[in-house]
Write a structure and sequence with these properties.
By secondary structure, the chain is mostly helical. It has five helices and no strands. It has one domain (about 1-65). The mean pLDDT is about 85.
Length: about 80
């Protein structure tokens, strides 16, 4: 039952975070491994976080938004000067 709950909640987050990260890496001319190094973690941890259905967005936050009748969409805004 828990697996089904996680899949249902993951579907509430409209973004495919794994693809989003890969696209942003390509746009920036970098790799997930380089990003991991910048944030002082391992590439395997970065990969695990973005592949896990509830690894990026807090599950409690998803449940709250679900209870309020909302889906979640993430929008990415490039910072100036970066």
């Amino acid at each position: 039952m828990k697996l089904i709950e996680n899949r249902v909640r993951a579907n509430m987050v409209r973004n495919n975070i794994e693809i989003d990260v890969k696209v942003k890496c390509i746009e920036e001319g970098t790799t997930q491994a380089a990003v991991a190094e910048q944030i002082e973690t391992t590439k395997s941890y970065v990969n695990r976080v973005i592949k896990k259905p509830n690894g990026v967005v807090n599950n409690t936050f998803v449940q709250m938004m679900e209870a309020l009748g909302y889906d979640i969409e993430l929008h990415y805004v490039k910072r100036e000067g970066k």
